[in-house]
Design brief:
Layout (H helix, E strand, L loop, with lengths): L1 H16 L8 H14 L5 H10 L7 H4 L49 H5 L7
Length: about 130
C-alpha cells in the first residue's frame, strides 16, 4: 500500500511541477491528427508535425492547435489552503525537556599551540 501511495504522490508532484503534464494531451494530438487525415488521406504524421510544430499558423482550427502537447507551456499548480479556523495546540505531555550539555569544539589535549601560527606566515626571502 505504501508503494502505491508513494507512486501516486510522486506522479502528482512530477505532473504538477514539470512538463510531464503535456503527455496528458496526447489523446488530443491523436484525435486532431485523425481529423487532418480524414480531410487529406495522403498526410503523413511527419507532415502533420511540420504543419503544427515547425511553422504554426492561425487557421480555422487554431483553438484545437493550441491544445496540442508542447504548444503552450504551462504547469498545473496544486494549492492546499488551511481553513481560517484551524488551531494547532500542544500540551506539555507531548514533548520532553532535554538537559543542556556544554562541550568544546575541539579536543584541547591534541591541540598544538604554535602549529597554527607557523602556517599562516607570509613568504620569506631566501
Amino acid at each position: 500500500m505504501k508503494k502505491w501511495i508513494s507512486i501516486l504522490l510522486l506522479s502528482l508532484y512530477l505532473v504538477s511541477t514539470t512538463e510531464l503534464n503535456q503527455f496528458l494531451k496526447l489523446p488530443v494530438l491523436i484525435e486532431h491528427y485523425n481529423e487532418h487525415h480524414k480531410l487529406n488521406p495522403e498526410m503523413t504524421i511527419l507532415t502533420f508535425f511540420k504543419l503544427h510544430y515547425d511553422h504554426p499558423a492561425k487557421d480555422a482550427d487554431y483553438k484545437t492547435d493550441i491544445k496540442l502537447p508542447f504548444i503552450m507551456h504551462s504547469t498545473i499548480s496544486l494549492v492546499f489552503i488551511l481553513a481560517s479556523n484551524f488551531n494547532f495546540e500542544m500540551t506539555a505531555s507531548h514533548y520532553k525537556v532535554f538537559k543542556n550539555h556544554t562541550f568544546s569544539a575541539f579536543d584541547e589535549d591534541f591541540f598544538i599551540k604554535g602549529y597554527l601560527h607557523s602556517i599562516w606566515q607570509p613568504p620569506r626571502k631566501a
